[in-house]
Every structure is written in structure tokens, then in C-alpha cells.
Write a structure and sequence with these properties.
The structure holds two protein chains of two kinds. Chain A is of the alpha/beta class. Chain A has 15 helices and 14 strands. Chain B is of the alpha+beta class. Chain B is built from one helix and one strand; from the N terminus they run βα. The chains are: A alpha/beta, B alpha+beta. At the A-B interface, strand 3, helix 3, strand 5, strand 6 and strand 7 of A face strand 1 and helix 1 of B.
Chain lengths: 453, 57
């Protein structure tokens, strides 16, 4: 299967052939682009049909010969190498600890219902946290690198448990030949100098929630009294970035239907000095006032195109920064198994509620239908894990012919369930945005690799 | 070739298909790591690259 696409770079149009099954990317001229489409029966626009007929037959033959050479080498129209895959249910390598179901903010798009996940405002005790570490030590088996994400609500509200969990986990590393990687997600408003030092020392990554411009942020990220949290969050996030040095962190924001011009938000963050930025589309049911709807997609695609252009320019000229959704590495990317297994929710990645219940991932927390077990008794309902183990690109009919399938791994299973009621369902808007971003990521990668700038 | 430039080839057929599970878990959903499957690196490959860099030093 082949996917063809183009990218407007300055005054030039770049034409790409993407071989879906081998992951081979080719830049071609317009003639080869059209010959490829025609040869493999891909639809041509009216203009392309006219242009195609205007090329000399002899030139078309040269281009076709080149295409057939690539095909012969398995770099175009190649066959799938794997046709079925079931994820292992015998290993756990990553836990999300919902440290507390409480938050000091009232963000308008919060999927966790003000941090409570529709449950009571529980705080995880050190005892539950330590039991979760024990569960991970046993269930990660021979895997050395294991992960714990501290999540909420706002985990700063229960920093004491975080500290005790880390101290316990570290004390077990040598004995069990493990290396714990801790991540912390915070809204930044409660960070103090002391807590920043602690996070900087212990966390392999820290996720700082900021939405971009003050006008964007303060419309949706409010405190309990309805006041915007931008000033405090920005001040603390900048202070943390300052002490963080070269260690991993990133600013993670959300765009909604209120800021479809989100490129300005990304650059507002870059101008504040952040160089690791992720601004992502909100995921909400269509009747929510902030939801991204199908009628917004054209506008969003144009914004991504506009941003891609500015991003390349900024990285080349004056301000290098990394935008997570344009990150791609065609040389050192993950193995095929990783691409097929997707996010690992319900299998190698699990979430723990403050009271110790085990869920497939943080987005399922609070939904009793998905309780897999608890930290005291371990996995009780293996059937739920088995269901998740079969959730791959092969279980989703909409993935079969999709050019992005080895880059999204079938997408977010929680989004699919929450918006379609089916773990294998298609969250169409999410898929369309992913595909758009993948095209741009490939184009950006090619432009930077070829130094076309 | 006159009309085609190969930018990357056969990225799914490299020799590091170990399924070693030492790389970071990915998640592309709300508030989390923003790591989709495709934008991660192979942990084993990173280790090899680091080793080579250390040898060069």
C-alpha cells in the first residue's frame, strides 16, 4: 500500500511517496508522483489528470521504471510483514498512580471531572503507593526499566505520598535489578522552591500544564473561584525550567474550539523560553462547547500547515524548539512490536486509583466495569486484560488501510471507548488529526534531513 | 535515479526488532506523556549509539 501526499515548502511543492508497510519515504518530482498514482490506481484530481496526459510517454516510462525498481527492492507497494498480533498479558512495566482525586483548579475541559474521576476526593496513602511498587516489582519480571507516573487530580496536593513511594522504590532497585523512571504531571500552581528541587532531582520527566497565551489559558484553566491560573502557573513553570537544565521536561497544553489559532499559543510558549512543547487537541463529546468538531478540521489543518512552516523557520533561524506531535525519527524509531502494541493500556501499562484499584489506564479510572484488580490481591479479572491484549491495529477495521497505523498504534483506546462506546471504535476526528500531523512530520523530517531550507 | 530520492528505507526491517520492552510506555491521551508510538526512539538503539559515542570519546 502506498500513500501519496505533498507539502508546500516556501515556493516549492514537495511530493512524497510513503510505503506504508516498509516505512520507506521517497521524495519525487511531479511526474513520478503522477505516474505512481496512475500506476497503482490511486485517485487523481482533475488537474492531475490533465497534467498527467501532458507529459511525454517516454518520460513517463523512465519514471515508471524507477518506481518498479523500488517495488522490486521492497521499498514501494510492499506486503505486510505481520498480519496478526496479540499483546502479552503477563508483564507490567508502567504504572500511573492517581496520587489524589482532588485538584485546586477547575479546568473546563478536564476529563477527570475536577480531578475526582466521578469518585470521592480520595488521597492515596503511602501504604497503597508502596503496595503498587511491590505489584510492579513482581509483575515487571525481567524488565529492568520500569515507570511510575504520578498523576491526579493535582499530585502536588499529596506530595508526602509521592516522596514515600519514591523512597521505597529506590530502596528496592538494587535488590530487584530495576531502574525506576518517575514522571510527574502538574498544573504548576502549587510548586514551591523546595518542591521544585525535589521534582528536579527525582523525576526523569516533568509535565507542566500550560495552554499558551494568557487569553487562551485563563479562559479554561481556572481556580475554584473562577480566576485564571496563568500568572502563577507561568511564573512557576519558568522557574522550574530554569533549574531543570538539560533534564527532561515539557510544557503540555490543550487547544479547544476557542483557540483554533493555536500556532500563536505554541509560539507564546516558545517566546517564554520553553523548548519542549506539546499542544494537543482537546477530546470531548461533540455537544461540549469546547469540543473539536468535524467542521473545525479544515481550519485546524490550515493551522498545522501554517505552523509547520513557521516551525521549520524558527528551528533554522533563531529559536529551536521541539514540538511533540511533529517528533519523528525514521532512523531510530521503535521496533515493529512496539508499533503494533500501541500504548499498552490494560496490558503493560496500568493505572492505580487512590484506594488501590487497578484500571487499564488513567482514563478508565472510576469506571467500575474496568476494574482489573487491586494492589493487595493483584490481577483479579484477567478477562479485561485479555480484551485489551487483542486491541491492536489488527482488531480495528479502520486501521487496515491507514497510512498512519504504525505511528499511532491504533490510537488511544480510552478515546475510542469514551466517544464511540467501543474499545475498537474509530474516533474519527482524532484519526484525521493524527494523519495530518504524520504527513507534516514526515515532510519536516525530510526537509531538515535534506537541508532543503 | 532521476525522478526519485529515497529518504528512508525499510524502517520496519532493522535489526533491532527485539521487543525488549525497555523503551518508555507511550500514551497519547489527556495530560500524559504525549508519546505516540511513532515518535519514540528504540531504547536499545539509543544505548548502542551512546556506547559508540563513549568509545569515540
Amino acid at each position: 500500500m502506498i500513500h501519496t501526499f505533498s507539502y508546500q515548502h516556501k515556493n516549492d511543492t514537495l511530493y512524497f511517496l510513503w510505503d506504508i508497510e516498509s516505512g520507506s519515504l521517497h521524495v519525487v518530482d511531479y511526474l513520478a508522483f503522477l505516474v505512481c498514482k496512475e500506476h497503482y490506481g490511486l485517485p487523481l484530481s482533475e488537474k492531475e489528470k490533465t497534467d498527467y496526459t501532458s507529459f511525454l510517454m517516454s518520460n513517463k516510462k523512465i519514471a515508471l521504471d524507477e518506481i518498479l525498481i523500488l517495488e522490486g527492492k521492497g521499498l514501494l507497494n510492499s506486503e505486510p510483514k505481520v498480519t496478526n498480533y496479540v499483546k502479552s498479558t503477563s508483564l507490567v512495566k508502567s504504572l500511573c498512580l492517581n496520587i489524589c482525586h482532588d485538584c485546586n483548579l477547575r479546568c473546563k475541559y478536564c476529563f477527570a471531572k475536577d480531578g475526582t474521576y466521578n469518585t470521592s476526593k480520595d488521597y492515596m496513602s503511602p501504604e497503597v503507593g508502596i503496595k503498587a511498587v511491590d505489584f510492579l516489582l513482581v509483575n515487571s519480571k525481567s524488565i529492568r526499566n520500569v515507570e511510575i507516573d504520578f498523576f491526579g487530580g493535582e499530585p502536588m496536593l499529596n506530595l508526602q505520598t509521592v516522596k514515600k513511594v519514591i523512597s521505597y522504590a529506590r530502596s528496592k532497585e538494587k535488590e530487584h535489578n530495576k531502574l525506576f523512571h518517575f514522571t510527574f504531571t502538574t498544573n504548576c500552581t502549587l510548586l514551591s522552591e523546595k518542591s521544585m528541587d525535589f521534582l528536579n532531582e527525582q523525576m526523569v520527566n516533568v509535565v507542566l500544564s500550560l495552554d499558551g497565551r494568557q487569553t487562551t489559558h485563563d479562559k479554561v484553566r481556572l481556580d475554584k473561584y473562577g480566576k485564571g491560573s496563568y500568572d502563577t502557573a507561568l511564573k512557576n513553570a519558568k522557574a522550574f525550567k530554569e533549574i531543570r537544565g538539560d533534564k527532561q521536561y515539557y510544557v503540555r497544553g490543550t487547544f479547544t474550539s476557542l483557540n483554533l489559532d493555536f500556532c500563536k499559543d505554541i509560539f507564546a510558549l516558545a517566546e517564554e523560553g520553553f523548548d519542549q512543547i506539546s499542544i494537543e487537541p482537546v477530546v470531548l463529546p461533540e455537544d461540549h462547547p469546547l469540543a473539536i468538531k468535524k467542521e473545525h478540521l479544515d481550519r485546524i489543518f490550515k493551522e498545522y500547515d501554517f505552523f509547520a512552516d513557521k516551525y521549520l523557520e524558527s528551528r533554522r533561524l533563531n529559536r529551536w524548539f521541539n514540538f511533540f506531535h511533529f517528533m519523528i525519527d525514521l532512523n531510530n524509531g521503535p521496533c515493529v512490536n512496539k508499533r503494533l502494541s500501541g500504548c499498552g493500556a490494560g496490558t503493560e501499562y496500568l493505572a492505580i486509583s487512590p484506594t488501590g484499584e487497578i484500571y487499564p489506564c488513567h482514563q478508565f479510572v472510576g469506571n467500575k466495569e474496568f476494574v482489573i484488580g487491586n494492589v493487595y490481591d493483584g490481577i483479579i479479572c484477567q478477562d479485561i486484560r485479555k480484551t485489551f491484549s487483542k486491541n491492536t491495529i489488527f482488531s480495528k477495521s479502520h486501521c487496515e488501510n491507514c497510512f498512519a497505523k504504525y505511528f499511532c498504534g491504533g490510537g488511544c483506546v480510552a478515546n475510542a471507548y469514551n466517544l464511540t462506546g467501543n474499545l475498537n471504535g474509530e474516533y474519527e476526528i482524532g484519526c484525521m488529526l493524527t494523519k495530518k500531523r504524520l504527513e507534516l512530520s514526515l515532510a519536516i523530517w525530510a526537509v531538515e534531513k535534506l537541508s532543503l531550507q | 535515479m532521476k525522478h526519485i530520492k529515497i529518504i528512508s528505507n525499510n524502517i520496519f526491517e532493522k535489526d533491532h526488532q527485539t521487543n525488549c520492552k525497555e523503551c518508555q510506555s507511550s500514551c497519547q491521551s489527556a495530560c500524559k506523556t504525549s508519546c505516540t508510538v511513532g515518535n519514540q526512539s528504540c531504547a536499545r538503539e539509543e544505548k548502542i549509539n551512546k556506547k559508540e559515542a563513549d568509545i569515540i570519546k
